[in-house]
Every structure is written in C-alpha cells, then in structure tokens.
Write a structure and sequence with these properties.
- With 324 residues, the protein is of the alpha+beta class.
- A five-stranded antiparallel beta sheet has the order 1-2-3-5-4, covered by helices on one side. It has a two-stranded antiparallel ribbon with strand order 6-9.
- β4 and β5 (86-90) form a beta hairpin.
- α4 (106-123) runs antiparallel to α7 (216-222), α6 crosses α9 and α7 (216-222) crosses α9.
- The chain has helices at residues 3-14, 58-69, 97-100, 106-123, 134-152, 159-178, 216-222, 231-244, 253-280, 291-304, 309-317, 320-323, and strands at residues 22-28, 34-40, 43-49, 77-81, 86-90, 181-184, 193-194, 202-203, 210-213.
- It is built from twelve helices and nine strands.
- The relative contact order is 0.12.
- It has two domains: 3-90, Phosphorylase Kinase, domain 1 (2-Layer Sandwich); 97-323, Alpha-Beta Complex (Aminoglycoside 3'-phosphotransferase, Chain: A, domain 2).
Length: 324
C-alpha cells in the first residue's frame, strides 16, 4: 500500500474511532476500486476506495439499499465521503466462494447462491433502473473484437469477417431481448460471493445492476469465468433454479436452456474483451489466464446450436483456438 494512501485513509478513519486501529489492503478488483480492512480490537470493517472520477458512489449506495431492504446479505454502510470516494462498511469476511468451491461443496454453496438469486429476482425493486438494452449489449461484445481479436491476438479481420461478427452480435442481442426481464446483479460469480455463517452468501460488487435477462446472473454463476464444471453439474444446477422459479413464470426447459446458453455467449464475449483490456490499459495481466476457460464456453455453445453456425465458422476461420 502506498504511504500517501495509507496516511489519507488513516486520517479519514480516525474521526470515527476512539480506539487504536490498523489498516491493511483487503483486495482490489477489475475496476478502479480498492478495498482496505480496518482492524480494531476484535472488530473489523472495510473501506471501499472508489475514485470519484472513475467510480461514483451513487449506484453502489442505491443498490445496497435495494438489496438490504429485500433481506439480502450485503455490507452495512456506516460512513460515506463522496468527495474522496470512501465508504466505511461492515466486513463480510475473507472466505470467497472461489476458494471453497470443489466437487464436495459445489451443490451446497450453489444452492445457497441460487436461493439468494431467486430472492433477488422476486423481491428486489428494479424501479427506475436502466435496461440492459441492445445498444449496451453490442458495445460490450465489441470489446471482444477491439481488445481481444485486434489488440491481443493482433488479427486484422477482413470487412466481410467484421460484418459477419457484427451480425452474430446482433442476433445474440436480439435473443437476449426475448428473455423475460428482471433485476440483474451483473457480476454474480464466485469472486463476488462470500461464505458467511448467517444468510449465506454475502453479496458484493453489485453497483452495475440493471434490468436484464432472467438468465444473466444464473449463467454468471454456473458458467463462471474463474472456475469451470462439467456439464452435468452446470445443467443440473440450472434445473434446480428452474424448480425454484416463481410459479407464475411458466418456462419450457429446452427454451430456457437455449436462452441460458446464448446469454452466456454474450457475457463471455464481453469478459474476454475486458480481460484483454485490463492487461493492455490497466496493466493487470493476471486476467489473461482466464481467457482460455472463458473462450471454451463460447466454442462449446457455437458448436451446440445451428443458430450459432456463423459464429462457429468465423471462429474456426480466424483460428482463435490455435492463437490462444
């Protein structure tokens, strides 16, 4: 931790503590945000440092309130400094889902996560939230072209190939618009879920929430960019979610599975683009390690459905698998 940052955090926190405390780095993420743990006697709290120029606090505070009112396990907000971008909040611990997931724990942990997801979809207010519309979806998928294909792989597509890829993006986006819409967390995966003794899981990193496809958060969880499972586990848990759906929502299993898979393609195209951008723009090269796993999801679904034949053909044509 830089000394200047530590000094500033210490000065800010001191006004809220009468006893001695120490501050240590807790974590950082793929955004400009960083997190610090304040340790005082037997108590710990977290400071979120969100540079106002890049990460305004408004959405985080808004979504925290929505989730908290609905009974989800999110941090309690104690103090806010908009000018600095600091929030002092409760500590949900150090046990993230990713570190604990294995074939013995997966069903128990994912059942809790799916229960929480259904709770979010049934009870959290989506009033006045923006929609995850076609424009936003296309912008996200274009990251795959700009940062992964062009920048990372240094592949220059022909005009025809660019047109084909844009057509694929549009068809994917149209499919997502056909899916029933709900509140979506947008990053509901193993690095943002904390194992807690009560009301498991603790939920983090929800400030980008929108109204979007019913399948979005489920695919983020079950086709996680940071850990993968065999299809038996993935689709068994997908079926478990379907059984928990609101009884007012009648859903054909095969139709839902198709929507689930295509939603995954949109999300994974975006993720690969972001992982590449994190390397070149933000000097965070560690995310490049997650690209092969994430690409495998796309490749599998491109082969699974005739509707994805154009994407499959293009991916083979530019030979991405070998380039990786």
């Amino acid at each position: 931790m830089e000394q200047n940052k530590l000094d500033d955090l210490t000065k800010w926190v001191k006004q809220y503590y009468s006893s001695d405390f120490s501050i240590e780095k807790a974590s950082s993420d793929a955004s400009f945000r960083s997190y610090y743990r304040v340790i005082s006697q037997d108590d710990t709290k977290i400071i979120m440092d969100a540079p106002p120029k890049h990460e305004p606090l408004t959405s985080f505070l808004d979504i925290t309130k929505r989730l908290s009112v609905a009974g989800l396990n999110v941090p309690i907000i104690y103090e806010v400094d908009d000018s600095k971008g600091y929030i002092l909040m409760s500590d949900l611990g150090k046990k993230i889902y990713l570190d604990a997931l294995n074939k013995e724990t997966v069903y128990c942990l994912y059942t809790d996560a799916i229960d929480a997801l259904c709770h979010i979809q049934n009870r959290v207010s989506s009033d006045d939230l923006k929609k995850f519309d076609m424009k936003e979806q296309l912008i996200e998928m274009q990251l795959f072209s700009d940062w992964f294909i062009n920048k990372h792989l240094k592949i220059e597509l022909s005009h025809e190939q660019e047109d084909t890829l844009e057509q694929c993006y549009t068809e994917i986006a149209k499919t997502l618009l056909d899916i029933p819409q709900t509140f979506i967390h947008r990053d509901f995966h193993s690095r943002n879920l904390m194992i807690t003794n009560k009301n498991n899981p603790g939920i983090l990193d929800y400030q980008d929430a929108l109204i979007g496809p019913l399948t979005y958060d489920l695919v983020s969880l079950l086709k996680d960019c940071y850990i993968d499972w065999d299809d038996e586990i993935t689709y068994k848990m997908m079926g478990s979610y379907l059984q928990r759906l609101n009884k007012d929502v009648v859903m054909d299993h095969s139709q839902f599975e198709y929507w689930f898979d295509i939603t995954g393609v949109q999300r994974h195209l975006k993720a690969i683009g972001i992982f590449s951008r994190l390397n070149y723009r933000d000097k965070k090269s560690i995310y490049l390690n997650d690209i092969p796993r994430t690409y495998k999801y796309i490749e599998t679904i491109a082969t699974k459905y005739p509707e994805m034949s154009k994407l499959k053909k293009l991916l083979l044509e530019i030979n991405i698998k070998e380039a990786l």
